[in-house]
Write a structure and sequence with these properties.
The chain has 467 residues and is α+β, with helices and mostly antiparallel strands. The chain contains 16 helices and 14 strands. Helix 6 packs parallel to helix 8, helix 13 runs parallel beside helix 16 and helix 14 packs antiparallel against helix 16.
């Protein structure tokens, strides 16, 4: 017996085995449907799923897809995809925060590095201020690994690092998001400013290191700036085919992680005309993310752009049970303060090529802003024995970053940047319910994507009783 839902009114109907190809009239709404049997075993899946497929006019579907913009489509998508940015930021503010370098340790490092004698006894065993800072960085990385974070050092070429520094100064003078933007001493770029600066940067330089630099700098800017970033990167990808695969992956990530519907719509427009093979893996990974808004964004993008080749992967997700993910560990979303983590995320620098480390308790803004520059104090040239890091050497690579309010901020702004990533930690009894909930959401999201894919291929998927 085949059970399925009427595509029109969702009433559960039954069809005897062997009835594939018959016309079935719904007793509730009188809609007539011709049914066909699809077995996912043919796609290489061990389990057999019986789905009813309805023949649909392909031209009608194509016309419907062209007539609706990505934004209007998102607004007609499941409620999980329609959450506004303010609501999502409130939820992100409750994500557990990890910190591996204390405020006291940062102040101590500055003091020891500036000691003119050059000799300091430290609990890490270093005999000089420089040794103390190096051991502080190593200790933070070791504790981060023990906390379940993935630590992988990556190093930029000097030319790319110089480009990043130039972009941070030219594009927005306050790279450390959270600087008081209401102050007359600081510059907040308009959409036109971003487009012009970005155009010039990409046209003049455009070396391989430009992509992480642009995304790192602009993902926390206001919504118009982020949308400009998507559009400019998309155009650049066509003019530089050798860099397009990495650009498309970066755009797909914005479709998953940006909290603005408008920005995600810009990313979807770019993906619509891109080679699906360049980004479908990014979307599939999004279905496994430990934050449900990302799961549903991945599902929505797969529904629009996925092909029958991803059906086996989606079917596997429908088979998963909550505790099959892992009985011993759990993947968790965490946030890390951008301003507090320089000595953790970057290698210490002891020459003029470094960037200043923000010191807790000290203002981020210069006491006397220069008329020729609106840059915060930490963009001034590094002086001898000042605490600094190498911006081109990083060990933590976040998935996304946002600006959140901070209580008890002291002399620092009340809104600061946080970087979000995932960690793997031992599971507890309290995780059971959360794992069940997110597993249920993943299965629903996988079904939503699967339904859209087969519909675009000229079929319609019957809804199982327990997706």
């Amino acid at each position: 017996m085949i059970r399925f839902q009427c595509p029109a009114c969702q009433k559960v109907l039954k069809l005897v085995d062997g009835g594939a190809g018959q016309k079935v009239s719904c007793p509730s709404c009188s809609r007539t449907t011709r049914m066909f049997l699809l077995r996912l075993a043919a796609c290489g899946i061990g389990a057999v799923f019986a789905f009813a497929l309805l023949a649909v006019t392909l031209a009608k579907i194509a016309h419907r897809g062209r007539s609706r913009s990505p934004v209007s489509s998102i607004k007609n998508a499941p409620s999980q995809i329609q959450l506004d940015e303010a609501t999502l930021l409130q939820r992100l503010a409750t994500v557990p925060e990890l910190r591996f370098v204390s405020d006291a340790a940062i102040r101590d490092a500055k003091k020891r590095l500036g000691d003119s004698t050059g000799f300091v006894e430290s609990r890490f065993g270093g005999e000089t201020g420089q040794g103390f800072v190096e051991e502080l960085n190593k200790d933070a990385c070791d504790r981060a690994e023990k906390a379940g974070l993935s630590i992988e050092w990556k190093f930029m070429r000097n030319t790319d690092r110089d480009d990043m520094a130039a972009l941070s100064l030219e594009l927005r003078k306050n790279q450390m998001v959270g600087v008081d933007r209401s102050s007359d001493s600081f510059f907040t770029p308009s959409e036109a400013d971003v487009a012009n600066k970005l155009n010039g940067y990409l046209n003049e330089r455009g070396r391989p290191g430009f992509l992480p630099t642009v995304v790192q700098m602009l993902q926390v800017e206001p919504e118009p700036s982020r949308a400009v970033m998507i559009n400019k990167l998309d155009l650049l990808g066509y003019s530089r085919p050798q860099q397009r695969p990495n650009i498309v992956e970066a755009i797909a990530a914005r479709a998953l992680y940006d909290n603005s519907m408008e920005v995600r719509a810009a990313a979807l427009r770019a993906l619509e005309t891109s080679d699906k093979s360049l980004y479908v893996t990014v979307l599939l990974k999004g279905l496994d993310y430990p934050w449900t808004p990302v799961v549903w964004r991945a599902s929505y993008a797969l529904r629009k752009f996925g092909t029958l080749q991803v059906v086996p992967e989606l079917a596997k997700m429908l088979e998963k049970k909550p505790r099959e993910e892992s009985a011993d560990t759990v993947t968790e979303l965490v946030r890390i303060s951008h301003l507090h983590s320089c000595l953790f995320c970057h290698r210490p620098a002891f020459d003029k090529s470094g960037a200043k480390v923000p010191i807790p308790g000290e203002s981020l803004t210069p006491k006397e802003p220069s008329r020729s520059s609106t840059a915060p104090a930490f963009y001034a040239p590094v002086k001898p024995r000042e605490l600094a890091v190498d911006p081109g050497a990083t060990c933590l690579h976040q998935d996304f970053s946002v600006v959140l309010p901070v209580a008890n901020c002291g002399s620092w702004p009340d809104k600061q940047r946080f970087d979000f990533t995932t960690r793997i930690r031992p599971a507890t009894k309290a995780d059971g319910r959360r794992l069940e909930e997110i597993s249920r959401e993943r299965r629903k999201a996988a079904y939503y994507a699967l339904e859209g894919i087969v519909a675009r291929e000229g079929k319609e998927l019957a809804r199982p009783n327990d997706p």
